[in-house]
UniProtKB/TrEMBL annotation:
The keyword NADP applies. It catalyses: (R)-pantoate + NADP(+) = 2-dehydropantoate + NADPH + H(+). This is 2-dehydropantoate 2-reductase. GO terms for cellular component: cytoplasm.
């Protein structure tokens, strides 16, 4: 396949490296220092399973289609949620990108709606990425030991986007990334967000600095011990909000998320949590703020989300 990936961060870089090594035509849309490093060094990937670092050559470009000189078969959108609108508008304005199916990767429940409004629902694939990836620097990432996967499905059945799903699954499988077709892709996004957002906000609120000023995180212990009931209460608020918003989620979703959390490495942290520890807003607005906004639209009581959203905003304002 011809594949364009927007965003050279942890997920975008990991997908780009794997797909390029599997023999697919890949271009990576980047800017600034990341673009410079792609063009002068390549994409640097550290794999903890083998304790090895490799350089993968993936063409760095400034816009979709620049390397191919024609439209790609699919665009993976892998920027942070905060860059979603700007980058999707760039896709809409680019003749080599307009009308190409766009597969989303963000942990943001508003992402499918935003993308559908800008590009048309018939062109959008909602997706859920799982795996332990970390962005280390410009065009540099690490992949921790363990499986990686992508669930993907079209917002509209029998649409142009739906037609490329089998090709996406085959391409990712050839790159060693487990890929499956998701019949309820928006529900899958919300289910993952129930873990990422609720765990992330509790982690950010309970992180502390030791005597040397270093941030100390309790990791997943925060949802396995004292704050487990709060974790469940946050998820219940999200479930009520999702259903009010017309998202289909079954009654077993909270149990599944709890089981997933209990199986993850105890030291795990979320990207939102790491950003806040560094004094950055990161995905706070796209994850926590989104739930407060959607709940308000439907008159759903999400007082815990509202409290943590306000608390963490105030903490960031006090950050040096």
């Amino acid at each position: 396949m011809r594949i364009s990936i927007i965003g050279p961060g942890a997920v975008g870089g990991f997908f780009a490296a794997g797909l390029a090594q599997a023999g697919h035509e890949v271009e990576l849309v980047a800017r600034g220092r990341s673009l410079d490093m792609l063009r002068t060094r390549g994409l640097q990937v550290y794999r903890s399973a083998s304790d090895s670092t490799e350089i993968v050559q993936v063409p760095g470009v400034t816009q979709v289609g620049e390397y191919f000189g024609q439209q790609p078969d699919v665009i993976f959108h892998a920027t942070k949620a905060g860059a979603l609108v700007e980058t999707l508008q760039a896709v809409a304005a680019n003749s080599l990108a307009r009308g190409v199916p766009v597969a989303l990767t963000q942990n943001a429940v508003e992402a499918p709606d935003i993308a559908a409004e800008i590009l048309g629902a018939e062109n959008i694939l909602a997706g859920v990425v799982r795996g332990f990836f970390h962005h280390l620097g410009p065009a540099e990432l690490s992949h921790a030991d363990g499986p990686s996967s992508y669930q993907v499905g079209a917002l509209v059945e029998n649409s142009p986007a739906a037609a490329v799903v089998p090709g996406i699954v085959d391409a990712l499988e050839s790159a060693g990334i487990s890929a499956t077709v998701e019949d309820n892709p928006v529900g899958a996004v919300w289910e993952k967000a129930m873990f990422v957002s609720c765990f992330g906000v509790l982690g950010a609120a309970t992180d502390y600095r030791d005597g040397s000023g270093k941030v100390v995180s309790p990791g997943l212990q925060v949802v396995r011990g004292t704050y487990r009931d709060t974790f469940v209460a946050l998820m219940k608020e999200m479930l009520s909000t999702a259903r009010a918003h017309g998202v289909s989620l079954d009654d077993g979703v909270i149990t599944r998320v709890l089981n997933f959390a209990d199986q993850m490495p105890a030291e795990a942290t979320s990207s939102m949590q790491r950003d806040i520890a560094a004094g950055l807003e990161g995905e706070l607005e796209a994850q926590l703020g989104a739930i407060s906004r959607i709940a308000k639209q439907h008159g759903v009581d999400v007082r815990l989300h509202d409290f943590f959203y306000t608390y963490l905003q105030e903490q960031l304002q006090r950050s040096p």
